[in-house]
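Issue 218. Parser rejects a valid record. Input:
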Amino acid sequence: MTQTKATRLTPELRTTAYYSTFFTGSGAAVIFLPIWLSEKGITPEQIGLVNAVPILAILAFNLIIGRVADRAKDWRQVIIIGSLIGGIVPIGLFFVNEFWGILLFWTLACLPGGAIAPVLDAATMRLARRNNTDFGVMRAWGTVGYMLFNGLTGYLVVWFGSSVFVPLFVGLAVLRAVVSLQLPAFRVPSEQPTLAAAARPQGAGRLREIAKPWFILPLFGFCMVFGTHFILNAFGSLLWKQQGISEDIIGPLIALGAASEAAMMFIWKRFGGNISARRLILISAVASVLRWLVMGFGPDVGVLVLLQMTHGVTFALGYLGGVHFIANWTSEDIAAETQSLFVVGQQMLSIIAVVVFGWLIPDLGAKAYFVASAFALVGGFCIWFSLRLQSPKSTG
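Output the parser choked on:
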């Protein structure tokens, strides 16, 4: 009986359980936060700040946390500490009702999760490679948890009104903190070499070893592609509503994109190892160019359904390719720091893309997606040029 239970509670299952809670608060906030803020008397301009300031705070801390995590005995310690802080701080939301208090506690509530996310991805990738298991499946359950609370929160709004938001968000943050306590050790002890580690060449141990155009360009290129997807998150529902699409259709369209993302992560291992990581990132960029080009024509619901089904290719494929690319060329010594640098790039390009898109929408409407298509095209060129500078190794 004990052996059977131990077999079931593998490091992969324990990590998957944590991923399934990791994005639930974000899933609830995407639907519920604007409603809650509005009912608190927060203006649209202030709502924009409440959403933007946490991103800037995370930008400031990502690289620091990544470096600390790489120097810790195990990445697990940093993930748990971040989760516990992230479970305690949101309690302050019960006691604030005006803009500055909400801004302070919402920023502090978002900061721990945003800072440890790249550490979690890097640690999970190393665990999967050491045990020859599937990173994509573990990460996919994070998207499933996000989707679940996208849908459930909509019903909670109807049943209980905005007063349920803070208890829900705090409860999900506490749940994530509790589940983090059962995370496994992610680093293999140095005295226990594994066959997988022996078979895989040692990657760079210092950032300066990979601070070269062939390594930076594909990651920068995907950051540009990622930024175009943040545009969809920020303005997609607004533009669809302007096109005459009703809210009861917009919700399922958003969920369809998340479902496509999860599906790609679940099936990743069946083909991901057969194509180099940079070529997969390039495929995501080309698909993004086409997706946003069609979106610029303001298509009807039938076409939008097809476009949302490509989200697994335009986003998930490139994201997984980027994470694998970093793992292919770096060692555990800089795994979290490099992944954090990648996330910082995504956030910076997202801010730029959203600001530019916000300027364009009043005059161009859906045609602003043509600019997003051009943005993705430049990102694709960066990835292609990297392949010309440095040929991939088996999976690079």
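Fixed in the parser; the record now loads. The chain has 17 helices and no strands.
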